[in-house]
Amino acid sequence: MIDKLAFIKLQDKKILAARSKGRDIYYIPGGKREPGETDSEALVREIKEELTLKLDPASVRFYGEFRAQAHGQPEGIMVNMRCYTASGNGEMVPAAEIEEVVWLSWSDREKVSDVARLVLDDLKMKGLLE
Questions:
Q1: What CDD domains does this protein's entry cite (predicted)?
Q2: Is residue 130 in some structural domain?
């Protein structure tokens, strides 16, 4: 099981997504915890590393947890993704391994990983995504 944290940022009923260098799909920005980190600490660190955006730790709110087959992994390797919303400041710039950031609508769901599709479906069902 791959344990991941993800940052859900919506704008104009679209969701922020990122693509790593050399990858063919988009995913919801975030990453894995380092030993001893809380979800909030890891999310703040990962988003600063990947997008240069500084999240306000006090604003981090749990959105939901989603599980699916991990992209690019052998059948049966699952990813469990705990999703959070948060407010932040600073200019959002792709950094570290991130090559591109985009805003996606529900109609773009074929461009994202299986677990991200579950998130997009949930957002669409709640009327938060176009």
A1: NUDIX_Hydrolase
A2: no
In a domain, 48, yes or no: yes
Q: Do the Cβ atoms of 130 and 106 come closer than 8 Å?
A: yes
Range of the domain at 115: 2-125
Model pLDDT, residue 34: 95
Cα distances (angstroms) measured from residue 47 to each of 52, 57, 73, 107, 126: 7, 12, 24, 25, 25
Q: Determine the longest span between alpha carbons in the chain, in angstroms.
A: 39
Of the pLDDT bands very low, low, confident and very high (cuts 50, 70, 90), residue 72 is confident
pTM (two decimals): 0.93
CATH of the domain at 80: 3.90.79.10
Residue 116 CB partners (closer than 8 Å, separation 6+): 6, 17, 26, 27, 28, 81, 109
Taking the C-alpha atoms of residue 74 and residue 105, their distance in angstroms, rounded to an integer, is 28
Give the per-residue SS3 of 1-12: CEEEEEECCEEC
